[in-house]
Amino acid sequence: MKQIFRTQIFFLFSLFIEGLVFSQPALKIVQPYENANLMYVTQSFVFGSVSPATATLFINGTSVVPYTNGGFLTMIPFQEGRFKIEAVASDGVSISTVTRFVNVAEATRPFPQNSSEIQVISPPNRIVLRGEDILNVACKGAPQGTAFFKFKEKGGHYPMVEVSPGLYRGVYKIQPEDNFDYDDVIFFLRRADGRKISKRAKAEIVVQKRRTPRFVELSEDATLLTGPGSEYGYNLFLLKGVRLEVTGEYGDYVRVDLDSGNTGWLARSTLRELPPGTPPAKSVSRNIRIQTTEGSTVLELPLSYVHAHRVDEFVNPYRMELTLFGVVADTDRIHFIAKDSIIKEIYWKQFLPESFTLVIITDQSYPWGYEVRYEGTKLILELRHRPRWEHSKTAPLRGLKIAVDAGHSTGSYGTIGPLGNTEASVNLLVAKAVEERLKNLGASVVMTQDGTKDPFSLQSRIDLAWKEKANIFVSIHSDACAEGENPREVEGFSVHYYNVGGELLGEILRDDYGKKSGIRDQGLWRSNLAVCRATTMPSILFEQGFLILPEFEERFLKKDHQQMVAHVVGESIVEFMKRTQSK
Ligand SMILES: [Zn+2]
Description:
Blueprint: H1 2-18, E1 26-31, E2 37-38, E3 43-51, E4 56-59, E5 62-64, E6 71-77, E7 81-90, E8 95-104, E9 119-122, E10 127-129, E11 134-140, E12 146-151, E13 158-159, E14 161-164, E15 167-173, E16 181-190, E17 196-207, E18 215-218, E19 222-225, E20 234-238, E21 243-250, E22 253-257, E23 263-267, E24 271-273, E25 283-285, E26 288-293, E27 296-302, E28 309-314, E29 319-325, E30 327-329, E31 334-336, E32 343-352, E33 355-362, E34 370-375, E35 378-384, E36 401-406, H2 423-440, E37 444-447, H3 458-467, E38 472-479, H4 487-490, E39 493-497, H5 500-517, E40 521-526, H6 530-533, E41 539-546, H7 550-556, H8 559-579
Parallel strand pairs: 2-8, 10-17, 25-30, 26-31, 36-37, 36-38, 38-41, 39-40
Antiparallel strand pairs: 1-3, 3-6, 4-5, 4-7, 7-8, 9-11, 10-21, 11-15, 12-13, 12-16, 14-15, 16-17, 18-21, 18-24, 19-20, 21-22, 22-23, 26-27, 27-35, 28-29, 29-33, 32-33, 34-35, 39-41
This protein binds zinc ion (ZN).
Zinc ion binds at residues 407-408, 414, 423, 477.
């Protein structure tokens, strides 16, 4: 009864005041986008907005209660293939309908028992191996069969194992006497009903037996991966000019040796092939020179080539281990030019004949970032000093320069809220409040962007903070989850760091924000993120919460929330400075 009465009043009201112009509820679906290609999901979220917020709303027949600002988010069942989402809103007078079509990937199902198909999973089109390497092969076909494989040009059948229904795997160890010459693999499957099927996979297998080793040089800075594909993790960051020996290929990736114990994979597109006969890049480390510049200790090590390097950092006291692959130690002098360097002790180790490690022990308790670069073939390691800082009640951040990074940019805006506010715009509002707060605390602030730089790469943000010699880097983001996940179950804030220098700041900020915001704490993460890993100062990335939930979208737009974040960031940095002060 009550409901009907209200509806009638509203009906009269809307006729009277607005005429019929605005009588239809304004309804929008923000995500998923029209024609979005989703992975296989059986349920996922739909969000958007409706006005008036009091409208009744159904999405594919499921009743959804909009938040007070009209934003809504709901989980609904999805079906594979072309899938229709229909939202219907009614204000008691008129009805609005919005439809949306998305493409949901098909589930991966085992092949039927009577399938005559064999699908090749591995090897890829081109593969180069050496003696003793293991070649992995895999195919899909009818389940509960018996499978084996052979090579086109070679005798011998090699068994395969059904590791899950319809997925067969096999291995072959390359023998010293093997001679492959662009060989293909032939798969054989005997189905449960006795029928035999075979398929030839164009594999171009080559066994490398070079008397002249093959070398490549990086034509750009590149990431050494732990496996042959972008889905594998980062191993090391290598600089342009590094020269390495090729020991294998898999599809578009090339395997290289760092030393006799370490290998990795590089995308072929980042490499330049060197002419046959090119010698390996070997340098002898001789005299090391150490001097200081404004805020840094600079170590110079003349070499003959650009080498792959790895850095490991430890705290209390701050110790760095710089490993150079392809370098042999013959250091007899370390020349300290400046007395005010932070280096207390330095020595070297040669674990393997081809890799040299410099151990640098400092009189700082905590790392403040570093940069490794080359001037020609002279290696420069710049170790940053802890900034001069003295606690003062009135200006507790005086003397510090802080880079504040509003995540994303206008064109590539990150996630989005139900009312259509982009992550980039929300991050920028919060970043501006943080800027103001940090300035009030006496810091000078470098804003990596002001919302007008577009596109604006992660590397440009990192480079800018380094050029400005910022002492701390804070990146601000707002979160979402993957399709298929329920945002209500996984929502919360999280803090990320990579280099040890960011860990303590991340811990302090996480504690303080958790207490002051009341938002669910999704933890402190060591995440392999560019702005955490490649920055040259203690760095964190802060996800303030889930923008795709209507109540958080509203909250993030509010001044008091932005100021709360700004206070938390400011106080966390003060606390971080206090805690890193002691030796
Ligand atoms: Zn983001």
